[in-house]
Amino acid sequence: MMCELMLEIDGMPVFIYDEVSSTMDIALEHFMAVDYEFAVFAASQTKGVGRNMSYWSSPKGNIYLSIVKKLPSNINNISSLSLVASIAVGDLVQKFSNLDISYKWPNDVMVNGKKIAGILLQMVENFVVIGIGINILSAPSDASMLGSTGAGLDSMCRSLVLLLNSRYNEWLLHGFIFLRELWMQRAMGLNKMVYVSDYQECIGCFVGINDCGAMLVKKNGVVNSYLSAEKVRVY
After folding, report:
1. Are 223 and 217 in contact (CB under 8 A)?
2. Which among 68, 80, 22, 78 has a CA at the least distance from the CA of 47?
3. Which of 84, 72, 106, 82 shows the shortest CA–CA distance to 180?
4. Is the bond into 106 cis (omega within 30 degrees of 0)?
5. Secondary structure class of 161 (helix, strand, coil)
């Protein structure tokens, strides 16, 4: 599959396609032939996936991005990176709209209680692929993010790469602790009851996240931490 356009953003090659199975698929295929950072955008996806491999509707008019970033040898836990990517998406929303957003742990960005963006991570050797889908115009569940803005999709895509690179570099230099408070300020369900399904089910009070990005849930006076979960529901 040939890309329709290649350009450079923030010193990074960016490959732009009209339609792909998924930008994650293309990024992983391209990675096998190169060893540098790059990004892949597509106007639409035929096999877009969300969390837990659920189907992600991917018509034209939204943003579909996968960006490949190099990891230093001292990084062995990337779970907080999905929260970092959420913050970058939040930066984008604030730049192009006045919508009130919230972050749902571990990897969703919400508007008015509806999901407008999701993030996937996949490690490949000493690189990480960050997949991001953002609802702009043709949004599932009527959760359009920026349908009323006059900004062009090209401008938003370029800004997303810049914002994500900036937050990623902060994460590398200072760790997630540097960005934790930004995520907490917009945490969905903070100090409310939540249902968490992991290796076991738990209903408790969501009291925050730790310096590794793990969800902290208090039940019967005991705080449990979750680095991942199959399902999270806020009551």
Report:
1. yes
2. 22
3. 84
4. yes
5. helix
120-129 per-residue burial string, b: 16 or more CB within 10 A, e: under 16? bbeeeeebbb
Cα separation, 140 vs 62, in Å, equals 10
pTM of the predicted structure, to 2 decimals:
0.92
Distance CA 137, CA 97 (A): 13
- Distance (Å, rounded) from C-alpha 156 to C-alpha 164? 12
Residue recorded with tokens 């990480």: 128
Q: Report d(CA 152, CA 7) in Å as an integer.
A: 17
Alpha carbon distance 121, 171 (integer Å): 15
pLDDT, tens only, 4-46: 788 999 999 999 999 999 999 999 988 877 889 999 999 998 8
Query: pLDDT tens-digit profile of 138-163?
Result: 654 555 655 555 567 889 999 999 99
